[in-house]
Amino acid sequence: MSAFIRYQLISFVRSLKFIPPFAIFFVWVFILYAYKNVPILSSYGASSIAMYLIMTWITMSIFTLDEESEKHILISHLKRKVSYLFGKWLTILVIMMPLLLFAIFYPIFTESFKGDMSLKLYVYAFYSHLAFMTFGILVGTLFSATKLATKKYAWLSSVLIIVVSLSSKSIIEISSFFKWIIWIFPPVFKVIGYMEGEDQVLLNTSVIIDSVFVAIYLIIVAVMLVSLFRKKER
Hints:
By secondary structure, this protein is mostly helical. 74% of the residues lie in helices and 0% in strands. It has 11 helices and no strands. The protein has helices at residues 2-15, 19-32, 40-63, 68-78, 81-109, 119-142, 154-166, 168-174, 179-182, 189-192, 205-232. α6 (119-142) packs parallel to α11 (205-232).
């Protein structure tokens, strides 16, 4: 598996597909912290949203690196089809680490925040970024590693999923009917809803329940994607 991950990383770098998403993310963060004394949680919320977009982009780029013939050769070397999927996910996790660390620590090193960091703020900052990164990976996988990848509007569909999930709160306010449909989209407001207002994270029942809901959602979607990938590769 380690050899497969190295091969994927080298292919990704040589393809130069990393340049646009990386450049946009760094510019986003630089602009976000261009001014001093910015609030902590809402700023991390903005960079988490950027992570959501960028990780969807990177995931779809990683899954489209290999030609069909090359993919079948790689799967035969890995012995199991699902190992190919897990190898791709691990590659994406390696790629996302420098982005994660940059998003968390850049504003701290530049002293951009108006308040002081605390252990709770660190924990929630990492949690929000990891959650949004995972949302992006799952959305990107859905439209690049399943039968939906062959659809003409795969990229447009992934953007639609992102937009709807980010707008879900406003959509539900339009009509309560939509709350029975919105739940299938990534529950971004179960994470970012606590990053508005004062720079305080309260460990209460509501936060714990929403965090458990997000974890269960991610696990269920990941299992479904594994099943869909297996069906596609039959």
